[in-house]
Amino acid sequence: MGKVKANAGPLARRPDNSAFKQQRLPAWSPMLTAQTVLPFFYGMATVCVLLGVWLLVTVQNTHELKVDYTHAGSCDKCFEKRKDRANANQSCNCTVVFNIENTFKGDVFFYYGLINFHQNLRQYMDSRDDGQMIGRNKNLKNPSSYCEPFMKDKNGLPIAPCGAVANSMFNDSFTLVYHSAASRQVVPLFRKGITWYTDKNVKFRNPQVENKTLTLAQVFEGTGQPLYWQKPVYDLDPWDRNNNGFINEDLIVWMREAAFPNFKKLYGVLNRAIEPFTEGLPAGNYSVDISYNFPVEYFQGRKEVVLSTVSWFGGQNNFLPIAYLVTGCLILLLAVILTAVWWKFAL
Amino acid sequence: MGSVLSQLGLECGRKEVKEEERHLRANDREFNLSYEYADNAIKTSKYNIFTFLPLNLFEQFQRLANAYFLFLLCLQLIPEISSLSWFTTVVPLVLVLSMTMAKDGSDDINRHRCDRQVNNRKVEVLIDGELRSEKWMDVQVGDIIKLENNQFVTADLLLLSSSEPLNLVYIETAELDGETNLKVKQALTVTGELEDGIEKLANFNGEVRCEPPNNRLDKFTGTLTLKGEMYSLDNERVLLRGCTLRNTQWCFGLVVFGGPDTKLMQNCGKTTLKRTSIDRLMNVLVLSIFGFLAIMCLILAVGNGIWEYQEGSKFAAFLPKQEGVNAPFSAFLTFWSYVIILNTVVPISLYVSVEIIRLGNSFYIDWDRKMYYPKSDTPAEARTTTLNEELGQIKYIFSDKTGTLTQNIMTFNKCSINGKSYGEKTEKVDFSWNNLADPKFCFHDHSLVEVVREGNPEVQAFFRLLALCHTVMPEEKKEGELYYQAQSPDEGALVTAARNFGFVFRSRTPESITVVEMGELVTYELLAVLDFNNVRKRMSVIVRSPEGKLTLYCKGADTIIFERLNPSCSKLKEVTTEHLNEYAGDGLRTLALAYKDIDPEYMEEWKLRHHEASTAMDEREEKLDALYEEIEKGLLLLGSTAVEDKLQDGVPQTIEQLSKADIKIWVLTGDKQGGLSSLEYTINRLQLFSLAHLDSLFSLSEQKRQRTLATPKDMEMELLRTACMCQTVICCRVTPLQKAQVVELVKKYKQAITLAIGDGANDVSMIKAAHIGVGISGQEGMQAVLSSDFSFAQFRYLQRLLLVHGRWSYLRMCKFLRYFFYKNFTFTFVHFWYGFFCGFSAQTVYDEWFITLYNLVYTALPVLALSLFDQDVNDRWSFQYPKLYAPGQLNQYFSKRAFVYTVLHSGYSSLVLFFIPWAAMYDTVRDDGKDIVDYQSFALLAQTCLLIAVSIQLGLDTHYWTSVNQFFLWGSLCVYFAVIFTMYSNGMFLIFTSSFPFIGTARNSLNQPNVWLTMLLTSILCVLPVVAYRFLRILLWPTINDKVRCRGQDKVLPPVPRRVQARRVSTRRSGYAFSHAQGYGDLVTSGRFLRWTPKSRLALFSQTDSPLAQTQPQFYRTINEGGEPPLSP
Known about the structure:
Chain A: One of its GO terms (cellular component) is endoplasmic reticulum. Chain A: Keywords: Membrane, Transmembrane, Transmembrane helix. The complex is a heterodimer. Chain A is α+β, with helices and mostly antiparallel strands. Chain A contains ten helices and twelve strands. Chain A has a five-stranded antiparallel beta sheet. Chain A is extended and about 90 Å long. The two termini of chain A are 58 Å apart. Mean pLDDT of chain A is 88; it is low at 1-6. Among the domains of chain B are: 139-268, Calcium-transporting ATPase, cytoplasmic transduction domain A, CATH 2.70.150; 389-405 and 648-794, Rossmann fold; 414-644, 3-Layer(aba) Sandwich (Calcium-transporting ATPase, cytoplasmic domain N), CATH 3.40.1110.10; 814-1036, no CATH class.
């Protein structure tokens, strides 16, 4: 036929005798036999149950307290006030009181939580400019069009940081107060060190300028603040000048959008250097003074404050331990059924 | 090609009006140019440098899948809709397009190179009275060109003159039809006189009128007008482009068709594409998947409308709506956004992967040593690479008999002479007394030799007839070493028999035949050859012996000969008929022989009329037939011959195996009923199945035969019903067209997959009609092979092709499709569930890069390895248990039902893969209290869970873990982790900020124990139910595969008995037929064919070095030109 003979000879076109070409590659052909499947099922059941128990014990040793302050305590009036957008610039402070029955041992984390806030809407998540937040001067003055309609303010100045995400940044602030028998003591919180290392050091940077003497305000000159913000980005943290601009940690935490509409975000970490908090949060009465700014009534949301300790396994989340226990039990049940069937039909 | 070209108007030079007749004048370029005939430049390439990109893209986007992705891409360019970055679609699309483009491009460059090389070949053209060396492409219609030995024919030429006597030329047509034997063409005498006189040729001004360009290789009609006289032209005067001139020093030809008009080019590029049933099922599935996709998108769009209405409006403070977007419009946009996101249910890589898998499995067929036939150095060949999996689903096999089931190597076995039968088994006859005998010839009856040597006149007449009445050509390389070139093996066997019994056919010239009769050289004058054809079924020669006696010798089918016997032979006829029946019962192929003395005066007169008829312009055939009929009358019976055609090795075992695999075998043969007994014997010996041997069947096929095309519907049904009650059906006296009709019938009413296997030109229609055509490359040329999808040398390889390759291919393809749909549906459903949590805003669950690379990189190779290497049981077990083949016939591995199960399975998996991570992450934090429920971490978790789960599922589906499987599976997982760590690295973010926003996610997530615990849980929940289900199924309802695999585990391979069985030497083993082919009788009679020119003779038949020649008594090369009537289904 058309093929050119590679080499002459009577067997010139004989195919190679390689294992690959003859489909005789050495191989392992496992089978689902009772000898492999049943022990595997019993093994998996044991592993799952043990894991479940271990996780359950771990989780039981953590503490968590959630306080919904949307309407609670004196915040009701603030809630009403925030309903009217005209009052947006008026401050409103309120206090919520709660009680901790058992000491929160170890590191205690202070979160704020939002219910029914969709940070995961596609258009919302797209509405940001990472190029701007990484401190590129080009993007600072010319934000990405994805930021629309929060790209330019009404004066035509580019907004920094632009976009819907930054614009809707959570702006309640909290002061946690411990009411001991003797006194009223403000619980000290670290307001830094609450972000991922990579976010703080790589993903978010202030604009780089050659003239190092410029203040942050000067660096951000020519940009507008996000429409809903009360303070410009270079003035977010009045107490720590290094926590301003794009590297403000509250901003960074907020910019890491939540995957689901109900979420909590880290606000602060208990400073355990000061008595009586060296062991954690002692049991007793507490209150939170809230600067109530963030309106939630528009989207039927709720706000809460969460205090929590963590284990190696993260915060207090009972799902995985229970899921492992249930799965373990189901596998065990299945294994027993399989054994019975095998006993009856195969033996 | 033509369509594309004409679409773009590239053929603008061509006439719009279809050419009705070609009219040209030799040596008159101006005259010929006025008709604007195409010149001899050919263009097989599709593109040039400018048209390549647009044309190729245009062609590629005509494919549905590509067009669909282009449509998606367009959707993505609309910012309101675009839910994914452009690269998610562009990267796979560009990859697929560029791969195809690279392949097309390199093909086309090769074609360009070829074209250029061909167009620039030099040929000597007669221009202005002298021969000039011109490029092929500059040759015009009407030019006279000179060809030399071993040159390719430049264009379709009218042969004018040649160096050889009688203006003959020899050509090889391998490029045209794949046949390597030489064919003879002859010029008209009137043009042959021109010889190589340049001046005469330059003044030659014949006008040719002929048919317009067409693709029929075997037909040419036209006339040559020269000096006011008309000469008819037929195929014999024409040299077609693509042939090679052999054994001819030079020849001159007139260009009739050039370049694109040549028959070679007209035959190009018309391939009917066969599609497999899986293909068709896949198309249905893809369409229903589109429907399913639309439903999912609709649900999500409605969800979006409701959400926008209830909540979105309130959320507008944080995410202002764009102008004019209300809830319904938002739902509309969302619908399209989800079309983009969920498009992964029909990934573009599906089609590419399917092609690759089929190609790979085709290569295995090419590479299989166990389908390689060393004697003819022929490996199996998958000529079509898109039909493999259908090989695993065959329900009906239609087989030719001669040459397919039998070897088509004939041995002279018995004969009946003057009422006495010879050939009963005794000792082997010693032919040493005859120094011209063929040493390989065997005969087992001494009495015949004795009778011949005694000088019995009937017996001598019998062998004289065999030595004279044939169209065999002898070749005598050395003194006494004869080789015969026969059109059909039967004929060769008969002439060889005569040779050994002392009637040695020594040489022939157009006018004479020289025979050594019992050592005495006798030359007969050859007066006429009344050649064989399928209607006449006989052949006669009229010779004049040295004594001046005129005799007509005739051999042919018994029924035909008996009709023409002299009444005086009636007694002999009876006896001979008995013998014939006996032979037929033994499965031998018989011929009856008869002779007649002719009156010289009558002969003179007959010859005149014969000449008249043979030069008649119209109804030439009919007139000749009538003349032949007239003279072949009143014959005297001599006897009959019986030739054995042995069954090929392993045929009974193969048939046994295949019928155990529940494949129904129909033998369609042109032989008559009585002669099939040996095959029946074979089949009955197995005692496995009932045999269809019903009179009604035969009468039906007889009826069909008479009506040829129009068979009434109910009769078709009747035939089918009767036939299908039997495991094996034998249809006799079937014409090639009917073969195809039978196949079509079964295809139409049984909806089963059919396979046709054959070796000759008469099987071509059947091979083309069946779902799969298999060609046996054997004795009868290459036509069957050329039109087949698979080819090999021996019928017994069919069982390996079906039971091993077919089964594996089907299994692999089904596993591939099931797994592929599983992994993509699972992938997509997770998006669907996430829609309920993200306000139906068409947010993706995964990183966009993961979406881009999932099908392309992370899961491509493991599933390819699965579908190229997987075997449920190895080939020996496949042979041991032919029943393993049954699931393919029943479509069990992949059907709509299996597809629905797959979808349900992936629905379950996707629920696990979305809701377990969701619940596990819902309210949790990192071990340092920081965030982990952010979108990016969740995306990473979800995609990692998915990838691990589908990888384990692949592991469960893999039955045959080669190192390649392991490497690809683990490699893909490693690549995944390597890629995410790279893409989520600082560097990538700093360089391509907007494309890689996931910076740090991998580092911050994958060091968390709860992330890994979540992955473990999802994997367990995805996989264990499947394991339990499969375990239970094997335990309670084991399939044959499970049982065999189980047994295979015990490693007790059964002994491999079969295949070493000694071949039975019984005479009852062979088939019977009357086999003969139309030959060169015409040439021989009219005294044109051969003149003893030793030089060319020697060269012509020098190719006897084939291994076959050493294994059989005599080597006959088939000179088979249009032996069977051309078929038009």
